[in-house]
Each structure stands twice: as C-alpha cells, then as structure tokens.
Amino acid sequence: MSVQPGSVQRINTPTRRDVLKAAMDGMIATLWGGSPAYAEEERMTTTTKSYALPSVLTYDDVRAVSPALEHYTKVALLDGLWQRPELSPRDRSIVTVAALIARIQTIEMPYHFALAINNDVKPSELSEIITHLAFYSGWANAMSAVAVAKDIFHQRGIGIDQLPPAKDKLLTLNEEAERQRAEGNASERQLWRHLSGARAEYDRSSVPRSLASLRSRAS
C-alpha cells in the first residue's frame, strides 16, 4: 500500500466500546458452549477408569510455566492432601467442587467435576450442589458451573432423568410438632411479659428509695 506525500494515513484504532463488546461476545460464547472442546491429552491423576477426564491444563502445560507448581500439584496436593484419611475422596470432591463454584474457578471445574463423579458423587448430587450454590454464592456462579457440567454430563451419557426435578413432593406437616412449637412460643411470650412487668415494678420502686437515700445523706 502506498501513501501520497503530504497525506495523513488514518489508522482505525478500536474504541473502548469495541473492546468491551468483543470481550462480552467472547464471554457469552464461552458460557454457552462456543469455546473449543477441552483438551484430553493427559489426565492430571492416576486412575483406573477407562475414560479420560476433560481438563484445560495438562502437567506439560504447568511444567512449561512453573516446574515447581507441577511438583507441588502432584506431590503435595494430589498425592498428599487428597490421600489423607480424615476425609474420604468423595467428601473432598464435594468440598472442592463447592469452593470452585463459589469462586467461579472455571479452569479447574472440568477436572474436579469429572473427578467428583469418579469419587462416587452422583450426578444428581452434583446438579443439586450447583442449584444450592446459586442461592448462596450467586446466579452467575451457578451458570458458569452449568456451562462446564453440561459437557461432562454429555460425555458420560447422563440424562435429565438422572437429575433432581424442578418440583418435588413436599414433606408431610407434623401437626404435633407444630402444636408444641406454638405452645412453646406462647410460653415464651408469657414469660417475657412477666419479666418485663417485674422489671418495670422494680424500676418504679427503686426511684423513691434512691431519692430517700440521697436526702438522708444530704441531711
């Protein structure tokens, strides 16, 4: 491309609005499955299962940036913390999955969602964890987890018939327990009124005594 002498070449610099729009488009595409499929080059665990765990990062990826972090991931974390007997692998998966959703740590979700199922966390339980945390950690947190879990469910052949329904039968009301609770509340209110009355009576009687004591000292 040639430029005439004395002319000014205009460079189309993207505006802040263009940059923000492109970023939002990318986020939406990622959330709804527009991103490339997860790499399955190497599993970051030793497992006897026949299927590969989907993961964004492999040990090779981590080693290329931080060999020390790869070492700590293998030795201190997976072969150390995860092997402690104080919590079962299933319980550790539930805790870890909940923490990742609460903090929207999507880079680790594919690996740990699949690991949770391997550790005997039922798909219905994983589904319910996501629903539960929508109310406690945020709707966007749960939607980010859905975007990851849908691929794992599809890979494992997990259908909607294996997941908790939107509506379920309510528990039968225990009328006897409700009656006892109502009686307990009534007794509490009666006791509170008695204590309040006694305190008011004490306050009324204590004022004259205090005045009499002051007059006695003054004389």
UniProtKB/TrEMBL annotation:
Keywords: Oxidoreductase, Peroxidase. Residues 198-219 are annotated as: Disordered. GO terms for molecular function: peroxiredoxin activity. The keyword rRNA-binding does not apply. This is Alkylhydroperoxidase/carboxymuconolactone decarboxylase family protein YurZ. It holds the Pfam family CMD. Residues 207-219 have a biased composition (Low complexity). Residues 76-151 form the Carboxymuconolactone decarboxylase-like domain. Gene3D superfamilies: AhpD-like (1.20.1290.10).
